[in-house]
Design a protein that fits this description.
ten-stranded antiparallel beta sheet, four-stranded antiparallel beta sheet, elongated, 225 residues, mainly beta
Length: 225
């Protein structure tokens, strides 16, 4: 890994951005290069494809998945079978809820079933929903959010028996099972940045190759025990 070190008066005080990394698994190398094409620092492979997914797989730090996507679920409050078209992440009251991806908040309010909820439109294909919040974050209806922005906090408002986030995922207007979706990658490298990016790759590869790796020859794998 190549990373920035923050220094004050010659003394290191912390770690900055990761600039490049190589992960080797069973003889295969997987590369990541930091590059800013005008929308912030992102990571790409050597072909200029994003190494990051467009959506967070888990928009909240949770203890367990208390209920999965199930078209035939028995509702614990209504006491009848009704489709559960989301994923419930059980978490402590007040746990931050993050926007799963970049987008615009198209709904922020209350319903008897959803409690406090937020809905984000990411593009013409994907929309996400966040239900049962105890309270909202600072972002208002109509505002743009970035992946990872805190949009609310875990609660049990509406039809809920315990503290959790009910996360909904729409694909082309239909709610689907988020945990089974093959999530798209983030925006690939723009063509007009290709030459500059190739220069960054060349310089980063040289720095990675200069890292001494003799220690790797002496590591012990559990698979060999």
């Amino acid at each position: 890994v190549i990373y920035e070190e923050k220094v004050v008066d010659g003394e290191p005080i912390g770690i900055g951005n990761i600039l490049g990394a190589e992960f080797n698994h069973r003889g295969n190398s997987y590369m990541a290069y930091a590059y800013d094409q005008g929308d912030g620092l992102n990571f790409f492979d050597e072909e200029g494809m994003s190494t990051q997914k467009a959506f967070l797989r888990y928009p909240v730090e949770y203890s367990r998945i208390s209920s999965r996507y199930n078209p035939n679920r028995f509702h614990p409050v209504l006491k009848r079978r009704t489709p559960h078209l989301g994923t419930d992440y059980a978490a402590g009251r007040g746990t931050p809820i993050k926007a799963a991806g970049d987008g615009i908040i198209v709904a922020r309010g209350w319903t008897n079933g959803n409690g406090n909820y937020v809905k984000i439109k990411h593009n013409s294909t994907y929309t996400t929903g966040y239900l049962h919040m105890s309270r909202f974050g600072k972002f208002k209806n109509g505002q743009r959010v970035k992946k990872g922005d805190v949009i609310g906090y875990v609660g049990k408002t509406g039809l809920a028996t315990g503290y959790h986030l009910c996360f909904r995922f729409w694909k082309r207007g239909k709610q689907v099972d988020f945990l089974r979706e093959d999530l798209p990658a983030e925006t690939p490298l723009k063509p007009d940045h290709q030459i500059d990016f190739e220069t960054v790759v060349e310089l980063t590869n040289k720095k990675l190759k200069d890292i001494r790796s003799e220690w790797a020859e002496n590591t012990i794998s559990a698979a060999n025990e």
